[in-house]
């Protein structure tokens, strides 16, 4: 939806999070980095499949005050839309964390218990 024709066949952008785990505790900060092509230009950011903002940099920092879960995507200059990553924010005192990245069938799933 809304993808310019010249980007339809472009390689997808790659979205990574630091720290790379979900959920994160409130009000911890998460750094989102979008790797597209090497073309110069702004990066588009999407939350829950809706355009959120455009940034000059390929990375942004987010934090939340309330618990919740968000589907994040990005589009770097000259690249297609990234696969979505679900990032949760929790105010629980204990959380079972999983990697905040796309996993494929057969991948090892590391788990982490944080308090």
From TrEMBL:
Q: Which GO terms describe its biological process?
A: cell surface receptor signaling pathway; immune response
Give the protein's recorded name: FCGR2 protein
| InterPro entries found in the cross-reference section | Ig-like_dom_sf, Ig-like_fold, Ig_Fc_receptor
Q: Which GO terms describe its molecular function?
A: transmembrane signaling receptor activity
Cellular component terms (Gene Ontology): external side of plasma membrane
Q: Which PANTHER family does the UniProt entry name for this protein?
A: FC RECEPTOR-LIKE PROTEIN 4, IMMUNOGLOBULIN FC RECEPTOR
Judging by the UniProt lineage, the source's domain of life is: Eukaryota
Q: Which Gene3D superfamilies match?
A: Immunoglobulins
> Origin organism of this chain?
Spizaetus tyrannus
Q: Does the keyword Signal apply?
A: yes
Keyword tags: Disulfide bond, Signal
């Amino acid at each position: 939806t809304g993808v310019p024709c010249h980007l339809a066949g472009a390689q997808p952008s790659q979205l990574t999070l630091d720290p790379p785990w979900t959920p994160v505790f409130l009000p911890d900060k998460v750094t989102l980095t979008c790797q597209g092509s090497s073309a110069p230009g702004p990066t588009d950011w999407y939350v829950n499949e809706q355009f959120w903002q455009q940034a000059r940099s390929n990375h942004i920092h987010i934090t939340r005050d309330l618990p919740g879960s968000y589907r994040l995507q990005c589009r770097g200059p000259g690249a297609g839309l990234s696969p979505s990553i679900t990032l949760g924010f929790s105010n629980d005192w204990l959380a079972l964390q999983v990697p905040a990245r796309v996993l494929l069938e057969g991948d090892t799933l590391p788990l982490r218990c944080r308090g």
